[in-house]
From TrEMBL:
It holds the Pfam family DUF3817. It comes from Saccharopolyspora mangrovi. The keyword Cell membrane applies. This is DUF3817 domain-containing protein. It comes from the Bacteria. The keyword Translocase does not apply.
Length: 127
């Protein structure tokens, strides 16, 4: 918990992924509302502000998906679906719910090497 803020900070890869997925979806919704104001009422400022926020959240979502897929031991296709879910509005929440329902947001108890562990091994062997 952040001192004095009352906000709980996620303590797992799945928790961070969940937080960013929901924030990305909310920023998408905010951008859609801002677009309605721009094209319906002629108020373009909201798109400028929400466009920047959504761009940052979109980037954060892609980065967090690339960071967590290895420790959560996602298969390639799970990662691909997570990345594709960043494009349609609110699909990141659908993916987060889908992944959570299948236990993909919890770290498995396994001694098997992660994706990045395998990459490191291959690179070491090539040297």
């Amino acid at each position: 918990m952040l001192i004095g803020s009352g906000v709980d900070v996620p303590r797992s890869y799945g928790g961070w992924f969940r937080l960013v997925a929901i924030a990305e979806a909310l920023s998408w919704a905010g951008l859609l509302v801002a677009m309605a104001f721009k094209y319906g009422l002629g108020w373009p400022l909201g798109v400028t502000v929400m466009g920047s926020i959504h761009g940052a959240m979109f980037t954060a979502y892609v980065v967090i998906a690339l960071v967590v897929f290895s420790p959560l031991r996602w298969r390639f296709w799970t990662l691909a679906i997570a990345l594709v879910a960043s494009v349609p509005p609110l699909a990141t929440v659908w993916f987060e719910r889908w992944a959570n329902g299948r236990g993909l947001l919890t770290e498995p108890d396994s001694d098997a090497p992660t994706f990045w562990g395998r990459v490191r091994y291959v690179l070491k062997e090539l040297n």
